Amino acid sequence: MRPAVFFDRDGVLNEDDGYTFDPNEVRWVDGARQAVKAVNDAGYFAFVVTNQSGIARGFYEERHVRSLHEWMSRELAIVGAHVDAFEFCPHHPEGLIEQYRVLCNCRKPRPGMIKALLERYPVDIGASFMIGDKQSDLAAAQAAGIAAYLFDGANLHAFIAPLLKYQSPGPHRTDTAG
User: Fold this and answer.
1) Phi-psi bin for 153: left (phi > 0), alpha (psi -120 to 50), beta?
2) Which residues contact 3 (CB under 8 A, 6 or more apart)?
3) Known catalytic residue: 22?
4) In the chain, where are the structural domains located?
């Protein structure tokens, strides 16, 4: 069991410029890549849970979101960081695309994306938390039984560093001199 940090994406990892799907238009939040690396280095799982109603609204497709997440993964790798899993909700009850015009359990403030990750990974729920920029992020975390913090929009690494407590065990020496 390991703790996890659940990151909202737009407004936490990248600037929220409205319906982000093109890597050429992504602007990382200050300290975002370093924050993910700090989460990795502390032994936490790093997860992204993001509402992507732009799919339901017809602005872009699921493949665009997956491509953006692959690009983000490559960018994070440059600083030695990684996200363990990306979850996104393509639904919106008022969407223009019929197959996505759904009142689902995965769209925040509902906890479906978080719960799906909790089922797939050995997460220490009591030591895990969500970082979001909206009340719906915090409500989803609360509904899933994890702590949540409202990101102030400044430097994500400075914001998250004091929240990280877990350190993965390092290598143990078993040999003895003598």
Assistant:
1) left
2) 43, 44, 45, 123, 124, 127, 128, 129, 166
3) no
4) 4-163
Please state, in angstroms and rounded to a whole number, the distance separating the CA atoms of residues 137 and 130.
8
Domain 4-163 fold is: Rossmann fold (3.40.50)
∠ CA 113-43-45, nearest 5°, is 10
Q: Which two structure tokens, joined as six digits, stand for 135?
A: 């009340």
**143 is written with which tokens?**
């509904």
Quote the pLDDT of residue 62. Answer: 97
Of 10, 41, 84, 124, which one is the catalytic site residue?
10
pLDDT at 178: 36
- Structure-token match 């990306």, residue found: 86
Per-residue HEC secondary structure of 86-147 comes to EEEECCCCCCCCHHHCCCCCCCCCCCHHHHHHHHHCCECHHHCEEEECCHHHHHHHHHHCCE
Residue 167: predicted pLDDT: 58
pTM, to two decimals = 0.91
Active site residue 17: no
